[in-house]
């Protein structure tokens, strides 16, 4: 069996020089045979390759675009135990050994091991961090057409080939260890989801006055009934609502000066991203018109994050904002901006904003729709008390969320490091079994 001569510019090269002496290093094409069985009779169900490396039936993925029926016979058949590769998204992890029989896209590639590698070991090896880095080196760019990994590069990629018995021990060890880590990750992700739900529940209860005698439900408004002494009003009654400046509107204006602007993507669910801002030209009068001051509320007008909102606790001198962002500025001082922001967050979570945009081709929250959203209006002093209470409560919840998310991140790093160590012989799987 020929041994590979190690080439240059390989992310896996340091590992190849450090593998156990009794392991072999073979080229991909010596280990895998490419298959091109077509689903001519359409016997096999449609399947997709996820970035997790799992091959799953398309019927389990919910709504998604179906292929043209005339192309169905061109789909490749992938049997259980065979390697499936999406060459256009290898950099994203689209490679894995299938555990089902199914028909996959004709843009994919299907391989069968020639007997040198066990399928489960191959799955761990080819999804390990060094090989993920290797796929990146094989791509020309990250665009759809330039990130494809060419077959020649894949064929010549060096693979670590331990004895079959050792491969089985490595696979069994990783099955056991990664299952424990995956359980911990799942539990923490579930906890994060519960904490986020708790966060919204706390906000909804407070802004609806549940603790003051109100109750959610019972009226046509999204927030339900309200305590005695509270009123409700559309946002435009208490705030001036304007959209930001159209990008590049005065691109050639000699009087304009380059200034940073708040973009829709800067407004995240619980944070405002201000690092490395983009700029465009504003005239002095425009900078005044599109100014951002403490007490303002900024809301995403269009795109995937429409409806997200943030309360400005500090001035942003010299900043403007783009047309996909709406600014709410108090017109009469009767509604606190922070309280209004919490109302908008609860409104978004309730589905009310989405319900008012179902007919739109591109999801958006127009100035008119935003201004028409009704919010509870308690006495001003009570608004501030509620906002202060919610700052304290959400801060505690956010701390717990951050801790859980950090544990997930550390667990994922631990999982990746463990797999790399095992498939490169840094862990003695026989001893660990």
Automatic annotation (TrEMBL):
InterPro entries: Restrct_endonuc_typeI_TRD (IPR000055), Restrct_endonuc_typeI_TRD_sf (IPR044946), Type-I_RE_S_subunit (IPR051212). Its EC number is 3.1.21.-. One of its GO terms (molecular function) is endonuclease activity. Keywords: DNA-binding, Endonuclease, Hydrolase, Nuclease, Restriction system. Signal peptide: none annotated. The keyword Nuclease applies. Residues 228-398 form the Type I restriction modification DNA specificity domain. It is an enzyme of class 3 (hydrolase). It comes from the Bacteria. The keyword Nuclease applies. Belongs to the type-I restriction system S methylase family. The methyltransferase is composed of M and S polypeptides. This is Restriction endonuclease subunit S.
């Amino acid at each position: 069996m020929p041994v590979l001569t190690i080439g240059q510019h390989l992310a896996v090269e340091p590992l190849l020089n450090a593998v156990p002496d009794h392991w072999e290093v073979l080229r991909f094409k010596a280990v895998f045979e490419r298959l091109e069985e077509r689903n001519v009779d359409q016997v096999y169900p449609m399947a997709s390759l996820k970035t997790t490396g799992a091959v799953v039936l398309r019927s389990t993925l919910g709504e998604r675009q179906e292929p043209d029926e005339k192309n169905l016979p061109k789909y490749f058949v992938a049997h259980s135990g065979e390697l499936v590769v999406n060459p256009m998204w290898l950099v994203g992890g689209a490679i894995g050994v299938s555990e089902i029989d199914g028909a996959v896209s004709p843009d994919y590639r299907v391989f069968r091991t020639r007997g040198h590698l066990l399928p489960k070991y191959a799955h761990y090896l080819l999804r390990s961090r060094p090989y993920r880095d290797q796929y990146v080196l094989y791509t020309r760019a990250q665009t759809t057409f330039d990130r494809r990994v060419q077959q020649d590069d894949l064929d010549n990629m060096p693979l670590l080939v331990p004895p079959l018995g050792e491969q089985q021990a490595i696979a069994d060890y990783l099955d056991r260890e990664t299952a424990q880590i995956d359980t911990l990750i799942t539990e923490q992700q579930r906890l994060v989801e519960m904490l986020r739900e708790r966060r919204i529940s706390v906000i909804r209860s407070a802004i609806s006055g549940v603790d003051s005698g109100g109750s959610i439900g019972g009226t046509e408004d999204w927030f339900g009934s309200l305590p005695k002494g509270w009123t409700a009003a559309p946002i435009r009654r208490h705030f001036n609502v304007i959209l930001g400046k159209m990008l590049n509107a005065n691109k050639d204006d000699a009087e304009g000066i380059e200034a940073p602007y708040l973009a829709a993507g800067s407004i995240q669910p619980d944070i405002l991203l201000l690092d490395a801002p983009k700029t465009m030209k504003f005239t002095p009068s425009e900078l005044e018109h599109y100014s951002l001051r403490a007490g303002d509320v900024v809301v995403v007008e269009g795109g995937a994050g429409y409806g997200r909102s943030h309360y400005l606790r500090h001035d942003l001198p010299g900043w403007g904002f783009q047309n996909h962002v709406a600014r709410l500025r108090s017109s009469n001082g009767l509604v606190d901006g922070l309280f209004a922001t919490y109302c908008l967050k609860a409104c978004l979570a309730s589905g009310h904003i989405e319900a008012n945009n179902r007919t739109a081709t591109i999801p958006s929250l127009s100035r008119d729709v935003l201004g028409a959203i009704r919010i509870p209006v308690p006495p001003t002093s009570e608004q501030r008390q509620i906002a202060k209470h919610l700052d304290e409560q959400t801060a505690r919840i956010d701390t717990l969320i951050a801790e859980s998310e950090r544990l997930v991140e550390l667990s994922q790093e631990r999982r990746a490091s463990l797999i790399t160590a095992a498939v490169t012989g840094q862990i003695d799987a026989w001893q660990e079994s």
